[in-house]
Structure formats: C-alpha cells, structure tokens
From TrEMBL:
Protein known as: EAL domain-containing protein
Domain EAL, first and last residues per copy: 24-276
Length: 283
C-alpha cells in the first residue's frame, strides 16, 4: 500500500521534477559558458570600524548575465556549489581578491583586508593550493586576506578544519565565522579554531531595538567573542539605531546598506583615494 502510494506520488510529481531538473541542467551549462566568457565579477562592501574607517572589504560575486543583467549569488551560487563549479569560480574570486588587495596596498591602504566567502565544496585541502597559487609567492600583509567560513563548513569535520585553517594561517590568511548564530557551533570547538572574528548574522541585527530576544542574541555573541578574544562584525546594518546599539556594546566592525550597497572596486578605490569615504555622513 505504502509502495503504491509512493509510486503514485512519484508519478504525480514527475513533470514538475523534470522541469526543475532541466532548468538546473540548463543553468549549469550556462554557468560553464559564463566561466569561459569571464562573466563573473566582484562587488565590495566595507566593514567599518568604530572610528568610521574601513577595516575590510567583503568581496561578493555577481554574474553579469548577457541577457538578464547583473545577477546576485542567490540565483546561481547553490547550483555552482552542488555542480562543483564553485571550485573553479572560487579560484578566480581568490585571484581577483588578492589582486584587489595588492592594489589597495599600492595605493596606501594595505591595512584594509579583503574578505572572501568560501563554500563547503571549496573547503578541502585544495583550498590551500588555490590560495597559495593566488598569492603567487608574494604574501599579502598579515591578515590581508580574510576567509569567511560558516559554522556548518567548519563543524562538519572540525579536526580537519582546524588543520587546514592552521596551514592557511601560515600563508597570512585570517578567518571570520560568517552568519554566526544560525549554525550549531560547539562552543568547546570554537575556542580551538584559529579564527579572528565572528560575524553576527543579519537576521539578528535586523530587529535590534524592536525584538528583545534578537538584542539578547547580539549581546551574547559580542560577550562570547570578547571571552574568546575575538572581534565581532555585524552584518546587515541598515539604520543609525542599529549602528549605535552595536557600537555602544563594543561590536568592533559594522557592515550594511547604511554605508551603501556593494560596489565595484573601480569606484571604491578612487573614493578611498580622494578621501570621499571618510567624508560620508554616516561614518
Ligand atoms: P554573506 O556572505 O552573508 O553576505 C552578506 C549578504 O548580505 C550580501 O548579499 C550583501 O549584499 C547583503 N547585505 C549587506 N548589507 C546588507 C543590508 O544592510 N541589508 C540587507 N538586506 N542585505 C545586506 P549577496 O551579495 O547577495 O550574497 C549572498 C550570499 O552569497 C553571501 O552571504 C554568501 O554566502 C554568498 N556569496 C557571495 N559571494 C560569494 C562568493 O564569492 N563565493 C561564495 N562561495 N559565496 C558567495
Ligand atoms: Mg560573507
Ligand atoms: Mg553573512
Ligand atoms: Mg549569508
């Protein structure tokens, strides 16, 4: 009976499944072409320190689709991840990120980190080689390259993660835990990871000031980080109220639309050079 029901159900869902599958295959095909044609680019969003200075720029990938315009990661990253294309895409992102950090350094902004998101599928021993290759034997300023990893990525196999992160740290890489608070980190392990920062997930920042439990969560992440000698970066800061709340409680760095949407390096660098960044009203 269960089997027959199961079969019926399978039949009922088949057309939808086929449509999804064929869309997916088509997308994989397009993504391969896009890699070949170099249609991916990076947008950067500042992580702003308490004094208003930029501490880091997070690299966020976009796909300049020939017909559909500029596409956000939500449209393609998941398919890149489960098709394995993320490995090649990730290599290019690392190479571009290193190049941008070198240009920052050449312009006198070498203290600004470039932060790069790393997916689970990239977080293998090959990542070491990819970073080493991107650096091309010329190290950046210590911590000049920051890798953002989620709790899920590092907790999957913590012992292996620690070892890989330690080797990467030998290349001068620093680490942030992205979307912190949404995963299931073991606090015992957290202490053992060679990490520098916890990034408070946007979902907790969003309702600061309205939602008492979100405030409590943000406060505990900041306290936890302090106890572990880590810094906190809050994501998704959109209002002055959120900014002030977080700064008052000692959150070291803030990131969000309050300082603008992610933008191309080619517009950010001149803004930095001409001091226009510091002149912003929201700093
Ligand atoms: P994430 O690493 O947590 O990045 C933060 C996301 O929040 C970015 O979305 C950013 O544009 C957005 N954001 C920043 N400030 C605000 C704000 O004030 N309000 C709101 N509502 N959103 C804000 P984006 O660029 O669409 O990226 C989404 C996710 O895609 C990233 O989340 C990251 O997980 C992934 N991703 C982006 N770039 C890369 C990449 O180069 N490689 C990999 N593996 N994943 C990437
Ligand atoms: Mg991130
Ligand atoms: Mg995040
Ligand atoms: Mg996220």
């Amino acid at each position: 009976e269960a089997k027959r029901r199961g079969r019926n159900r399978a039949v009922a869902y088949r057309p939808a499944f086929d449509a999804t599958l064929s869309r997916r295959l088509q997308l994989i095909h397009q993504l391969r072409d896009a890699l070949e044609r170099d249609e991916f680019e990076l947008a950067f969003q500042p992580q702003v320190a308490a004094d208003g200075e930029i501490a880091a720029l997070e690299a966020l990938v976009r796909w300049r689709h020939p017909a559909r315009g500029l596409l956000l990661p939500a449209e393609f990253i998941a398919v890149c991840e489960d098709s394995g294309l993320i490995v090649e895409l990730g290599r290019r992102i690392l190479r571009d990120a290193v190049w941008c950090q070198r240009r920052l350094a050449a312009a006198g902004f070498g203290h600004i980190r470039i932060a790069v998101n790393v997916s689970a599928a990239q977080f293998t021993d090959d990542l070491y080689d990819d970073v080493a290759q991107a650096l091309h034997g010329r190290p950046l300023a210590d911590g000049g390259l920051d890798l953002e990893l989620t709790e899920r990525v590092i907790m999957d196999s913590p012992a292996h993660a620690i070892e890989l992160m330690q080797r990467l740290a030998g290349l001068g890489v620093s680490f942030s835990i992205d979307d912190f608070g949404t995963g299931y980190s073991s606090l015992a392990y957290l202490k053992r990871f060679p990490i520098q920062r916890l990034k408070i997930d946007r979902s907790f920042v969003q309702d600061l000031g309205q939602d008492a439990s979100d405030a409590a969560i943000c406060q505990s992440i900041i306290s936890l980080a302090r106890a572990l000698d880590l810094h906190t970066v809050a994501e998704g800061v959109e209002t002055e109220q959120q900014r002030d709340w977080l700064r008052e409680r000692g959150c070291e760095e803030l990131q969000g639309y309050l300082w603008g949407k992610p933008q191309p390096f080619e517009t950010l660098l001149p803004a930095l050079q001409h001091g226009r960044w510091g002149a912003r009203p929201h700093a």
